Amino acid sequence: MTRVEHPRSASLRRSRTLLLASVSLCVLGLSGCKGLRRISECQRFVSLANSALSDIEVLDEPEVPEPHEGNYAKIAGRFLLLKQQITDLGLRDLELSQAAAGFQATAEQSAGISSRYAEQLRVLAASTDNNKGESDAKRALAATRSEMERVRNTHEATRSRVDAVCKPR
Fold this sequence. Notes:
- By secondary structure, the protein is mainly α.
- It is 85% helix and 0% strand.
- It is built from four helices and no strands.
- Helix 1 packs antiparallel against helix 2, helix 2 runs antiparallel to helix 3 and helix 3 packs antiparallel against helix 4 (131-166).
- The longest helix has 54 residues, at 7-60.
């Protein structure tokens, strides 16, 4: 016995097929847009971070052989500015914004360490006539340099996370 189909159910089935195809295209289109948004946000983030880190590198390697407190105060300010600029990007991609939050935390830590280092350099410069004060200041500087190294390692891990998020798939 052959089944006779009502003309309206064939129309509904075609409509449902078209609807499913449309939804599929929309989903594909949205994921494509999401991918394009991620690429755009990654480009903006990486450009911003590279610019800031270049500025900091110039300040961290001055022409004079001795570190200068003024440079480290500027470095601290640049890290804080970078943290704010990342916020101002308004990243919408969840994975990138999470990686960027790690970058911001590292920038904030680096700003604090750079401020302390600047202060310790100031104290060292002021304590040249006091041997005890000078040795205390040198110990504090050595401890801060160790802390800087730990934060650099954290920064590398954060940078790797950003690279993983922004790497084309």
